[in-house]
Amino acid sequence: MKSNPRVEWHEHGDPESWLHAAAADLERILAVELAIRGQARMLVSGGTTPAPVYAQLAVAPLDWHRITIGLVDERWLSPQDSASNTRLVRESLLDRAEVGHFEPLVREGLNLAESVHAANLEAQHAPDACVAVLGMGNDGHTASLFPGSVDLDRALASELPYAALDASGCPVAGDWPLRITLTPAGLSRTRHRLLLLRGQAKREVFARALAGDDVRELPIRAALDIGIEPLRVHWCE
Fold first, then answer.
1. Phi/psi of residue 8, each to 5°?
2. Is 152 helix (H, G, I), strand (E, B) or coil?
3. What pTM was computed for the model?
4. Core-most of 46, 108, 145, 236, by most CB within 10 Å?
5. 7-236 has which fold?
6. Is the pLDDT of residue 227 over 90?
7. Domain-wise residue ranges, the chain
């Protein structure tokens, strides 16, 4: 990957090195935040790629009771469902570390619009997140900002931290088209953004993203040129 001021690129020779480096990066960011502000808030993504990083991070000697964990996005289904990001984060991190507070996106007893409203209220009254852990699909989506979705323009333009999004017809969304997603406005409130990538195909998609600026084509571009810090990328084959 060529040097680019928009990105801090960390390339690792094997999955184990990638895992430990990503977890150590997150531990460092959280430790600094705790030392400076006495509390920390981190937004995390679901998926099989970051899950082992969360499990590794969970054993870090941090004051977890002063750390809040929120979600980058969520599928509109029960938090107990095996496909929910909440369940993955709970099993890989929350059940392993005594986290002070967890911010769900799907709220029991609320419909989709009400859940989004509740998430926005909580996010707007919470301290800015010190870091957001992002992933990226082969279609260039990040969070649940899917290219071609009918709600993409509205989500990209929203001034609120979270938005509902219908990704019907987007193949990568699979069987769960209804989502709650962090918006670019919400992402802009995070001090650090960490993108976790695995595989040559995603490296090539990310290189395409760096070569252009149309966020609607490759929504991962929404994570670039936000804030002072460059996007931190950890990649391995």
1. -105, 100
2. helix
3. 0.97
4. 145
5. Rossmann fold (3.40.50)
6. no
7. 7-236
